[in-house]
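call fold(seq) -> tokens
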Amino acid sequence: MEAFLVVLRDHAQGPDRRPDKALDDALARLDRILAQIAPALEVEYRGPFVGIGAGREAFCLAVRAHEEEAGTRVWAARVCSADPHRGLAAHWELARVSRLRKPILARALPEFLAGYHAAVAAACKADTGAGLRLRALAQALGVDH
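ret:
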């Protein structure tokens, strides 16, 4: 298993682990991989909540064509506003969330990857190269889907 996946798995399963440089690097690597997978699949998915404290349901993970600067649309995974009136407005790349949010994000990754893979399977794209890579990511974090 790739080293960054071991780091993500350990942080996902270890609720008392503090964010560190290894987690930062692993999230950056996951961001890059998902930035390749998402446009190849073009499957939207709204994942688990990753808000903090009382605002737990204020933010969620989502994959879709997000509005970036100057009206450009980019397929990627982002932490988004979960407010239905904002339309999943992207706020942060996975690797750019605050240190306070990183443990919450890490714990949500297995559910997120499994759910995203389920959405890809429902769209009949699970057997594509990107779909297979996504399945491998989900399995590496302890989810057999």
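The mean pLDDT is 91.
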